[in-house]
Design brief:
UbiD C-terminal domain-like, Pnp Oxidase, Chain A, 23% strand, 13 helices, 2 domains, globular, 5-stranded mixed beta sheet, alpha+beta
Length: 482
C-alpha cells in the first residue's frame, strides 16, 4: 500500500525502529548538519528534530539514509524487486534495432503505470494559504555547511512545463534562499528544467514554477529518477507506489502539485534575471562554486496545518543521497541492458558519487567489446558524465570493489587497455580545466584475447575443484572452526 503522506511514512519508520525523535532544541544553522553527518557516517536512523530554534515545524532528515529505509520508502523489501518488474516488462517486447530501442524506452516508462496522476479539488497541502504575505522565514530551512552561501532547500520537487507541448517535468534542484520571497534556481544546463527555461528565455516570457516539499517518499524519489524528457515523473511515481498520485491546481499559477505535500511554493522565474547562487557544500565532498543562476520569485506559499519540513544534507559519502542513487542504479539497469545487452551488472560505488566511477561486467563475445561498451555508456543520458569506467568479465562481482580492483591490477596493461575521450562533464566536476567539459577514462580489465593483439598465454584463475569444495562444505562443522 502507498503511503498516504510523509507523516504516514514517519509512523512506519518509527514502528520499524528506523527513526529517532530528537526532543532537545537544536539550531537549523549547522547544528542539525553536524548531528546528521555523524549519524549518517555511523549508518544510523532517520532523525526527526521536534524543537528547531525559532520555528514551530519539525525537521525530518536521513529518511532515505540506508538500503532498508530506501526500500521502505518504495514499499518493497529490496529495490531489486522493482528492477525485476521492469525487466519482466522489457523482455517480452524487446525491440531488435537500436533506433527502435531508443523509441521504446519512453513508451515503456509511460505504460509501466496503470495509475496515472489524477486531479483533485481539495488538498491537505492547501489547508493554510499565504498569498498576500508569503515568507520562507516560517520554514526551518537549513544552513548546511560553514562555507555555504546561505540557507538551502535541498529536497524540493520542482515542477515546470514545456512551453510548446505543455508536458510536465519534475526535477530536484536545490534552492538558495536569498530572502523571504526569492531563491536561486540551481538548474544545471543539462537538466530538463533548464531546457524548459531556455524556451521561455527565447520567448521572453515569465516561467511559472511550483515547488513541493514533503510527499509520499515514492513521489519525492521519482523527482530524482533519470526518466526521458517525454515521461511524466508523476506517472513513474504512480508505478512505484501502485496508486495514482493525486494532484491539485496551484492557487496563483497554472501548475499542479502533489496534494499530499507538506509545503508548496508557487511563483515564477524571470527570463532575464540571474543572481549569484552558492557556494554550496555538495555531494562530491567539496564546495561547488558560486555562479549565476535564474531567480525564483515566490508569489504564494501553501501548507498543511502542522507540516513536517523534509530536508537532506550532502557531503563526503556515505550520505542519504547515496542510497537514492543506488536505488536508481538498480531500477534503471534493465533499461541500460536493453540498449547494451552484453552488460551483466553495474556498480556505481558510493565513493564515486555516481559520476566519477562505474564498474561494469559484460558477457564478452568478440575483441574490443569492452571499448564498445564504454562508448555506449558515455552515449546514454546522464551516464555521459561518468569520468572513469572499468569493464570486467561476466564472472567478476562488480558489487565487490576489492575484486574489481584486483582484476584491474592483474588484467590491465595501462598503455594498451586505457582509453581517453573528451566530452561533457557534470556541472559539479571541479578537476577539469574548463567548466562542464573534460576528459574521461575507460579501463578494459577483461581477459585479453589473441584477436586483441595479446600473443602470450593468459594464465588460468586459481579455483579449487568442485569435489573438494563440496567435501569441505559437508564436513565444515566437524573441523570446529568458528
Amino acid at each position: 500500500m502507498a503511503y498516504q503522506d510523509l507523516s504516514d511514512f514517519v509512523k512506519k519508520l518509527e514502528a520499524a525502529g528506523q527513526l529517532k525523535r530528537i526532543k532537545t532544541e537544536v539550531s537549523a544553522e549547522l547544528e542539525i548538519t553536524e548531528i546528521t553527518d555523524r549519524v549518517s557516517k555511523a549508518y544510523g536512523p532517520a532523525l526527526l528534530f521536534e524543537k528547531v530554534k525559532g520555528y514551530s515545524s519539525p525537521v525530518l532528515i536521513n529518511a532515505f539514509g540506508s538500503y532498508e529505509r530506501m526500500a521502505m520508502s518504495l514499499n518493497v523489501r529490496n529495490v531489486d524487486e522493482i528492477a525485476r518488474e521492469i525487466e519482466s516488462l522489457v523482455k517480452p517486447e524487446m525491440p531488435s534495432t537500436f533506433i527502435d530501442k531508443i523509441k521504446f524506452i519512453p513508451h515503456l516508462l509511460m505504460t509501466l503505470s496503470k495509475f496515472p496522476p489524477k486531479t483533485v479539488r481539495h488538498a491537505s497541502c492547501q489547508e493554510i494559504v499565504y498569498e498576500t504575505a508569503p515568507s520562507l522565514a516560517r520554514i526551518p530551512i537549513l544552513k548546511c555547511w560553514p562555507g555555504d552561501g546561505g540557507q538551502f532547500i535541498t529536497l524540493p520537487l520542482v515542477f515546470t512545463r514545456n512551453l510548446k507541448t505543455g508536458n510536465r517535468n519534475t526535477g530536484m534542484y536545490r534552492l538558495h534562499v536569498y530572502d523571504e520571497k526569492t531563491t536561486g534556481m540551481h538548474w544545471h544546463v543539462h537538466h530538463d528544467g533548464a531546457r524548459h527555461f531556455r524556451d521561455y528565455q527565447r520567448e521572453n516570457k515569465r516561467m511559472p514554477v511550483a515547488v513541493a516539499l514533503g510527499c509520499d517518499p515514492a513521489i519525492t524519489y521519482a523527482a530524482t529518477a533519470p526518466v526521458p524528457p517525454e515521461v511524466d515523473e508523476m506517472v513513474f511515481a504512480g508505478f512505484l507506489r501502485k496508486k495514482n498520485v493525486e494532484m491539485v491546481a496551484c492557487k496563483t499559477i497554472d501548475m499542479e502539485v502533489p496534494a499530499d505535500a507538506e509545503y508548496v511554493l508557487e511563483g515564477y522565474v524571470d527570463p532575464k534575471e540571474t543572481r549569484i547562487e552558492g557556494p554550496f557544500g555538495d555531494h562530491t565532498g567539496y564546495y561547488s562554486l558560486a555562479d549565476h543562476y535564474p531567480v525564483f520569485h515566490i508569489t504564494c506559499i501553501t501548507q498543511r496545518r502542522e507540516p513536517i519540513y523534509p530536508t537532506t544534507i550532502v557531503g563526503k559519502p556515505p550520505m542519504e543521497d547515496c542510497y537514492m542513487g543506488k536505488a536508481t542504479e538498480r531500477m534503471f539497469l534493465p533499461l541500460l541492458k536493453l540498449m547494451i545487452p552484453e552488460i551483466v551488472d553495474m556498480n556505481l560505488p558510493l565513493f564515486g558519487v555516481f559520476h566519477n566511477f562505474a564498474f561494469i561486467s559484460i558477457d564478452k563475445r568478440y575483441p574490443y567489446q569492452a571499448k564498445k561498451v564504454m562508448h555506449g555508456i558515455w552515449g546514454m543520458g546522464q551516464m555521459m558524465f561518468t569520468k572513469i569506467i572499468v569493464v570486467v568479465d561476466k564472472d567478476v562481482n562488480v558489487q565487490n570493489v576489492d575484486e574489481v580492483m584486483w582484476r584491474v591490477g592483474n588484467n590491465v596493461d595501462p598503455r594498451r587497455d586505457t582509453s581517453f575521450v573528451d566530452g561533457p562533464m557534470d556541472a559539479l566536476e571541479h578537476a577539469s580545466d574548463l567548466p562542464k567539459i573534460g576528459s574521461k577514462m575507460g579501463i578494459d580489465a577483461t581477459k585479453k584475447w589473441p584477436d586483441e593483439g595479446f600473443n602470450r598465454e593468459w594464465p588460468a584463475d586459481i579455483i579449487m575443484s568442485p569435489e573438494i569444495v563440496a567435501l569441505v562444505n559437508e564436513k565444515w562443522k566437524l573441523y570446529g572452526i568458528a
